[in-house]
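Bench notes, bay 3.
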Amino acid sequence: MGSSHPSDATLKSYASLNSGGLGTLSEFWRVYRHKTSDVTGNVASVVGTCKDMEKDVAEQFGLALRDMAVLEVGAGQQLLRLKYFSLTNDVTALDYDIIIQGLDIPAYFRVFTNNGPKRMLKTVLRKLAGIDRSYWNELEKHIGRARSRLKVVQGDAHAMPWPDASFDFVYSFSVFEHVSDPAKCLDEVIRVLKPGGVFLISTHMYTSDSGAHDPRSFLPHHGDLAPWAHLRPAHQNSVKPNAFCNAWRNEQWETLFRERCPSVVLQNKMSPDWLIPELATLRTAGELAEYSDEELLTCDLWALWQKPSE
């Protein structure tokens, strides 16, 4: 129904920023530090999030995520959430990039052809560094043996390649802030949901401390990167994002979800507590006055909605 070859006019690859060879290596080092600084804690956080998803969906809509047709939009390279839900569901992932699973040499050439040399280089470096394997091994300590290969489709979230009413549950994490037309992607999520099906979309807020997706901002106290650097003119030149961001603000997201999905449940997920005194200091200095405390301290917005039964 949709194209399996995404259009650059509508969808941006997570690795779409052109930073050159040395820039890509520098970016990889920043990402490597983030990914390897606390593998145990990072995986425990993913597992905890998946459990929270199950709990919220059950409490809000009475839906148990078991024996369901499940779609993850924008699964990313490691497929941790998909592996978690694969234990009890029929899972599928959609991603702009080709996701390499196992020893698949031809896939590296497809990555180069379809997603460009930067994505291929980052993928090769990540595999050589053993990042994926360390995360998968840690995940299996929590959930037991997971499937080694999962259904992953390369495609455009603006034009999903499935017929109407294909999935019982659709979820997405930190993806919608990287697309050029979030409303169109949301319409596609609604279209592929079955009547009575549920979506859970988590969007990382641009006005949060880590909203620009500089990998350093995800490290504890993020070293030499100033808090909310991307929103502060004196520090903006120090920010090195590793992804395109559409820079939507909280109110835009809330309006989109409420207009498209009446009765949507919206939940603010807050940033770490250590940022509260940092914000107080900046307020005293007269900085960030154009943003509310809620905007600056909300890390993610969760939107949960059940499609009306026909």
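Next record in the batch:
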Amino acid sequence: MSRRLITSIEIDGAGGHPAAWRGAEVDPSAILTGELALRAVQRAEAAGIDFATFVDTLEAPADDASRVSARLDALGLAARIAPSTSRIGLIPTLTVTHTEPFHLQASVATLDFVSEGRAGWLAEVSSSAEAAAVIGRREPAEAAETWREARYVVDVSRQLWDSWEDDAIIRDASTGRFIDRERIHYVDYESPNFKVKGPSIVPRSPQGHPLTAVRFNTPEALQVAVEADLVLLPGVTEVEERLAVVRAASTTPKVLVSVSVLLDDEERAAGVGVDYVGGVDGLADLIGEWQAAGVDGVHLRPASLELDVPVIAERLVPLLRERELVGPVVERATSLRNRLGLKRPANRYAGSRG
């Protein structure tokens, strides 16, 4: 039997196509209530897709009458969807540039609790003047600097997630002891960009470390990608070459090809850059080629949530299962780490008392 591939989808408004929200099948108000995203994620979960990512940026969407000029916060949307799902992983995009690492890690850990161990984050950076103006703390920086900072953010986040040992919470009302202070550890972290002192304000989450994902779309991103649990390779060209670059630097991350897809309707693709336009058979063939090249999975970015996700869930994934490229539908709830075959990290501070 073939090695099982990881499958995932991207949630981006009504879809990656800029006119997706204008289709007769879409209720535009459902975009901003989260109902459209929830429906897509539930369809993906029912099909056995492993996780969903959620697009976000610090920059506001363009004020263009032909497009939706608002976007839901990715972390909030994932938290909204978590109680209405039970098996699929939830990975919001969080921009680590300009924002406070302490609060970022606490938010991701909280999502892990809300989802009962199905959370992660897609660490992103920003070099734009607009994003810098939104926060107002500092000037924009070059890509190399933002990714170097991102590596520190990932590092300190993992230290803070370890600052509470798994058994630090006692909850013994009879003795009045609720926390074992010896199992909470003080983090004293300093990077060129920030300082963090003290333990996290959130206890260690179900997965220990929620999953860290990185989109490897620039050479500078490699320094964080090698530290990640998941790496996304955007686009369908030079897959083997880019995979080799990641594997040469680290064999730890699971590597997925991230491909924008518009299925069974070439008319919608007019004038829009989409990686794959065509039928499910051709896409399944491509995915089979990537599997043979050594990738661990595929990250599908649908042009329309209402049109393409049903095709992915009802036709593509069953076809991949028929070809033994993906495993059976996971019927019971489990952590995202368990689902993807990743170990729960040991706590670096356990056993250091006394």
